[in-house]
Amino acid sequence: MALDFTAIDFETANASSASACAVGLVRVRDGRVVARAGWLIQPPAGHDRFFELNIGIHGIRPEDVRDAKTWADQLDDLAAFAGADILVAHNAGFDMAVLKRACEATGQACPPYRYACSLQVSRRTYELPSYRLPSVATAAGFGPFPHHEATADALACAHIMIDAARRAGAADLDALTTQLGLRVSHIEAAPLERVA
Where are the alpha helices (DSSP H) in the chain? Predict the structure, then answer.
């Protein structure tokens, strides 16, 4: 086995988990970053209002996504990049909820990804006053970076997992999570409603 995974990060337009407006993806093979990608997304209809609070965090405005692909149109690109990898995110519950809820909002089948959380891993790997992504990334020897830029956040997350696996002597994510008393989870996507 090898330390292979895809780190992922979403930014959202508002408080709705379905309001994805950007994604960052970083592919890791054998414990090394080998590819990265990121793009803006038009949030699903009904979830596409941009809150000033969110704009203040990531700087993405409605006009920035006007010509971007919709969630439904970009989902194949996301799936093609991630393949069958385990997804990793910092506070993975948030990012997996975005993936699941945006699919539900657009009637797409949510890919049945396995995933791990770098926030949980970091809490069992480092002794820090804060486990926010920039703090943990620094402890992992990565940074500084533009926090809340989706691809940069995914890259920071990838480096945290690489460093944690190195410190633990773990060959892959299953071994790392098991050794830390955690687990690799699975997205439980709701079945799509059939139209009679």
Answer: 52-58, 71-82, 92-106, 118-123, 133-139, 150-168, 173-179
